[in-house]
Amino acid sequence: MHRAYRAPTLGIASLLSAAIVCSAYASASDPQEFTAIERGRYLSVLSDCGGCHTAPGGRPFAGGRPIETPFGSIVAPNITPDPETGIGAWTDDQFDAAVRRGIGWNGTHLYPAMPYNAYTRMSRDDVLSVRAYLNSLDPVRKPRSRNTLPFPFNVRKLMAVWNKLYFAATEYEPDPTRSPEWNRGKFIVDGPAHCGACHTPKTMLGGDRTDQYLQGANLQGWSAPDITNNARTGLGSWTAEDIALYLKTGHNRMSAATGPMAEAVELSTSRMTDADTTAIATYLKSLPGKAEERSAPSVDGNMMAAGGAIYRDQCSACHGIEGKGVAHLFPSLSASAMVRSDDPTTVIRMLLRGARSASTDAEPTAAGMPSYAWLLDDGQIAAVLNYVRNSWGAASPAIAARDVTRVRSETASRAD
Ligand code: HEC
Ligand code: HEC
Ligand code: HEC
C-alpha cells in the first residue's frame, strides 16, 4: 500500500519533495500549501492537543478532562481563545512558554501531565502556528476546574526541582548523518506526538528513564509495550509498512490498537499524512532496543497443558490453533509483541474486560474481543496467557494467578 502510494512521486517530483523535507523536516509535510492556520491545525493533530484538552462529550479544546497521573488527576484547561477562561488574552510569549517550557501564564509551573518536555522539540514558529489555529476557533467560556493533587504534589514550586532533574529545553536538532525521513520521524516521535510519554518507563517522580527509551511503560492501568526494534518484546518482527499501517488504521496483520493507543490512533496518528506515518516507522525500525538476557521459560508442563486446553476451547475460533489470527480482524497472537511483553498488564486487562480496537476512517468497524472475567478464574486466565506467551517459538516470563488478581482489582474501579 505504501509502496504503491510512493511510486508516482518518483522523478522530478520526488527530488523536489525531498528538498522540501530537507529544509523543513520539522514543518508539516506539505509546508508550501499550508497557511499558518492550516499548519497549526496539522501540528495540533500531530500533538493531539485536542485529546487532553477536550472533555468527553465537551466542546473541542474547551478543557475539563482529568488527566490521570500516578500522583493524582490534573484537569486540562480551556485553550480556546476565550479571553477570560481560555488563552485569548495571552501573549505569544506566554503561550510559547506554556507549551515549550511548562510555565503557566502567571509564572507558575505546569505539571508535566502537559507534555511540554516533548513539545520543547518544536520551534517557536511551530507553536505559534498552533496558536494561530486555536485562535481561529470559536471562543468557549469555561472556567478552569480546581486541581486535585494531594500534598506535596500540589505545591507547584516543586516542579522547578522536577524540571532540573528531567527537563531540558531543547529544540530538535536534525542528525545530518541520517535521512530527512528518519529525522522527520524522530522529530514527530520525540516532539509533537510525545510517544515516550506513554512508551518510555518513568522514575518514581514521573521523569523519563532515558536509558530505557521507548522500551515500554505502565500507565493508567495499561502497559504500553516496547516499540523499539527489539525482536522479542518490541517491533522486531514488524515491517516499516506494518507500523505505518497500524498508525494509520489502528490495525495490521498482527495487532490492533486498544485503550489509550486506540485514542492516540483515532485522534492523532490516523490523521497524519502517509509520509509522516512512514517517517515514524522508519525511525522506530532504527532503534535496537535493549540487549536481551535470554531467560529460560519458567512455565511448567502442567500449566502449558491446562492453558492449551483453554486456548483451544475459548480462543482458537478467532485467533486460530496456531495463533495466527485473521489479518485486520483478529490479531495474530504468535506475532504479537504485546503478548510477550515483560509487563503483561494490558493483555490481562484485555482478557478481563474484553476490548474494542480503534475505529478509523480506513477501518471504521472495529472487531471486538469478549470479556473472560466471569468465564475463567484468575488461575485459568494466567494459564491461558502463559500458554500463548510460550507457544509458537516464544519464551516469556510466567504470569501468576496473583498478577491477574492484581489487575482485576486495579481495573475494577475504572469506567473503561
Ligand atoms: C497528555 C495530555 C495533554 C496534551 C496532549 C496537551 N496538553 Fe496542554 N495541558 C494538559 C494539562 C493536564 C494541563 C494543565 C497542567 C497544570 O495544571 O499544571 C495543560 C495545560 C496547558 C496550557 C496552560 C493553560 C492554562 O490555562 O494554564 C496550555 C496553553 C496548553 N496546555 C496547551 C496545549 C497545546 C497547544 C497542546 C498541543 C500542542 C497541548 N496543550 C497538549 C494536558 C495536555
Ligand atoms: C496515551 C498513551 C500513548 C501514546 C501517546 C502512544 N501510545 Fe502507543 N500504545 C499505548 C498503549 C497503552 C499500548 C498497548 C495497547 C495496544 O497495543 O493497543 C500501545 C501500543 C502501541 C503499539 C503496538 C505494539 C504492539 O506490540 O502491539 C505501537 C506500534 C505503538 N503503540 C506506537 C506508538 C507510537 C509510534 C506513538 C507516538 C506516535 C504512540 N504509540 C503513542 C499507549 C500510547
Ligand atoms: C470473538 C473473537 C475472539 C475470541 C473468542 C478471543 N479473542 Fe482475543 N482478540 C479478539 C480481537 C478482535 C482482538 C483485538 C481487540 C483489540 O485489540 O481491541 C483480540 C485481542 C487479543 C489480544 C491482544 C493482542 C494484541 O497484540 O493486540 C490477546 C492477548 C488476546 N486477544 C487473547 C485471547 C485469548 C487468550 C482468548 C481466549 C481466552 C481470546 N483472545 C479469545 C478476538 C477474540
How would you describe this structure to a colleague?
This protein has 416 residues and is mainly alpha-helical. It is 41% helix and 5% strand. Among the domains are: 34-166, no CATH class; 301-412, Cytochrome Bc1 Complex, Chain D, domain 2 (Orthogonal Bundle), CATH 1.10.760.10. The protein contains 18 helices and 6 strands. 42% of the residues are buried. Mean pLDDT is 86; it is low at 1-30. Residues 44, 47-49, 51-53, 67, 74, 76-77, 79, 87, 95, 98-99, 104-105, 110-111, 113-115, 119, 130, 147 line the site of one heme C. The site of one heme C has 27 residues, from α10, β4, α11, α12 and α15.
Explain briefly what this protein structure is:
This protein is mainly alpha-helical. Helices cover 41% and strands 5% of the residues. It contains 18 helices and six strands.
State the share of residues found in helices, binned by percent: 40-55%
Order of helices and strands: HHHHEEHHHHHHEEHHHHHHEEHH
Oligomerization status of the protein chains: single chain
Bound molecules: heme C
Report the span from N to C terminus.
33 Å
Largest sheet, in brief, is:
2 strands, antiparallel
pLDDT average, as an integer? 86
**CA-atom Rg in angstroms:** 22 Å
Tell me the fraction of residues in β-strands, as a range. under 5%
Structural class designation: mainly alpha
Shape: globular
Strand order of the largest sheet: 1-2
Alpha plus pi helix count:
18
The tally of strands reads 6
Which consecutive residue ranges, at least 5 long each, have pLDDT under 50?
1-30
